[in-house]
Design goal:
The structure is a homodimer.
Chain A lengths: L4 H8 L3 H8 L7 H14 L5 H8 L4 E6 L11 H16 L2 E6 L3 H13 L5 E5 L6 H9 L3 E4 L8 E5 L1 H14 L5 E5 L5 H16 L9 E3 L4 H13 L6 E4 L2 H13 L9 E6 L2 H5 L5 E4 L2 H16 L8 E4 L2 E3 L5
Parallel strand pairs in A: 1-2, 1-3, 3-4, 4-5, 5-11, 6-7, 6-8, 8-9, 9-10
Antiparallel strand pairs in A: 10-12
The first copy, chain A, binds a DNA duplex (16 and 16 nucleotides) through helix 2 and helix 4.
Chain lengths: ~325, ~325
DNA sequence: TTGTACGCGTTATCAT
DNA sequence: ATGATAACGCGTACAA
């Protein structure tokens, strides 16, 4: 059996309350007593019982990373490991633990929501890549569970941290324009996700700013998967006259696009230039290395946790919205 | 304030114990009463308080996926998302929740171990890709915490689930031999990991079985990263006579090797054939598509959880060791 | 079958 | 500054 507060109290010759105060850094305890108690604690390797503490404080020190059903198939995208790294690092400094909730089906989503949230396992939630109309957001709002969304949300009550997708996309397309490309296509993300919409908007803004007419045939929707990028590129290769460059809304889709181009017997960037989005580690290793818009993925995750921590501890009452800036990384594809 | 057992009891006109029995499917409660209680529960959306329950039962229904410091830099490998998928799916059916523990530094490892394990947040642990001499294993053993290792371990007390790495490597190399390649190199995984050792052993066995002399110069150690694969391949390209084929112990390293070969102005598979290991999703999308040894990564994770569940619930006393079979997927690189 | 009463390990309030 | 003591919400012997 493990040690309890009571054990430590006995060993240190004080009361349970005093030990509790020491453990929680309560000021009113004599330094010498505090020292004595700490000595005992260290000697026997005492650690407070998490469940007991939770029951008393109504806090678990656990936050959840929840990934909705709609996108959990995208979980293999290198984006997520990076996001998770950022999140776990921040969790460590805030003394939080991270629970992972991947929803696979709507039923499971419902079920897991109850098991996880309503049984109060979590102090708060980081919500990754939701669709704009996701019911999860409403639910969390209704249940009063603190959460931060990765990616903007229009509801004024939700806190989020996002990258400036519009600016990023503009940078990408304007870079292509500067290099002389005029017939620039785009493979978008899912248009029911904010990131998909915003990157498309940036594309349009860039063209408009440079007085390049918009050709709807050059806009193909993707789904953030490699296969989706390949399919979208194949559609793009069919339009006449063929685009000479393409802005792809994620690196993973860019890999698919590259394959499609190669498969058609064309060269990158000679025949068609590519600019991606994300700068996942693989981007630099592609052949040729991918020109892309870098978003600070780890920082995205870490910032979300920082905000959530403030929310949970009641340090702030109002929703926080922070937008991080991306940067263009020029490599060889465009 | 949320509902408690007491509330439900009052609303249903029974005692708290009866409600508890209903919730926990205890047999001795009259069907009509059971029904009435369930109705109330559903009506108000009652969910038992996890912390309270844990305190009483001494179980949290949370298991941890812990990734040691040594390998957590590999976390961006597509292997992990797949493993996590398998784990989360199995967790769902076992009614477990998954906590993610990535150790970044030795200090953090020590610290997190205490915060997480000794404060009894977890019922058990899935240990991913440890080194053979990892102290973590000893520690978990000493502390009597149920755990299952992904990847074999020599200590007879540890349960593990592994893929037959020796057989997989043999299959890969024998395939190359059948295709007529004689000068076959290998890029190994880290040789302080069981998977690294075993795949190298399989390579050696295949050569021996076919009476092909072993050339130590053709064995280069990698670290399961793309950069490591590239560097190892560059070393391999320097040996004379040059290898005509290479068995690479992970797909991620294979991508690096492919780059190195291309960079040297050579073609795959015309000049050098490649066979990888893992069959991550990207393998099929490579150019050319990668011939590789497929391991059932999701199943690996799911099986680990299944075993762990039996361990935690006391369904079994003895360490379980299960080995899954890989299969060769022949595509275009070799 | 059902209810009573105690214990799980903390935190927090109230005396002292 | 310190020590009793009452919650926190649940499971479970034991009694009825």
């Amino acid at each position: 059996m493990a040690y309890t507060l009571e054990d430590i109290a006995r060993l240190a010759g004080v009361s349970r309350s005093t030990v509790s105060r020491v453990v929680n850094n309560h000021p009113s305890v004599r330094p010498e007593v505090r020292q004595r108690v700490w000595d005992v604690i260290r000697e026997v390797g005492y650690q407070p019982h998490a469940a007991a503490r939770s029951l008393a404080t109504n806090r678990t020190n656990i936050i959840g990373l929840v990934i909705p059903e709609a996108v959990s198939t995208l979980f293999t995208d290198p984006f997520f490991p990076l996001l998770i790294r950022g999140i776990t690092d921040a969790c460590y400094t805030h003394n939080y633990h991270l629970m992972l909730a991947l929803f696979s089906t709507p039923d499971q989503e419902e079920d897991l929501y109850n098991r996880l949230l309503k049984s109060r396992y979590l102090d708060g939630v980081v919500l990754a890549s939701t669709r704009v109309d996701d019911l999860l957001v409403q639910r969390l709002l209704d249940d009063g569970i603190p959460f931060v969304s990765i990616g903007r949300h229009t509801d004024t009550r939700v806190s989020y941290v996002d990258v400036d997708n519009v600016a990023g996309a503009r940078m990408a397309v304007e870079h292509l324009l500067r290099r002389g490309y005029q017939r620039i296509a785009t493979i978008t993300g899912p248009l029911n996700m904010a990131a998909g919409q915003d990157r498309l908007l940036g594309y349009k803004q860039a063209l408009a700013a440079h007085r390049v007419p918009l050709d709807e045939a050059l806009i193909q929707e993707g789904d953030f998967t490699e296969g989706g990028g390949l399919a979208a590129m194949e559609r793009l290769l069919d339009v006449q006259p063929r685009p000479t460059a393409v802005f792809v809304a994620s690196d993973t889709m860019a890999m698919g696009a590259l394959r499609a181009i190669r498969r058609a017997g064309l060269e990158v960037p000679a025949d068609i230039a590519i600019v991606g989005f994300d700068d996942v580690p693989q981007a630099a290793f592609m052949n040729p290395p991918l020109t892309t818009v870098r978003q600070p993925i780890e920082l995205l995750g870490a910032t979300a946790v920082d905000i959530l921590a403030d929310q949970v501890t009641g340090k702030t009452d109002i929703p926080q919205r922070v937008v991080l800036m991306p940067e263009l990384v020029v490599r060889a594809t465009g």
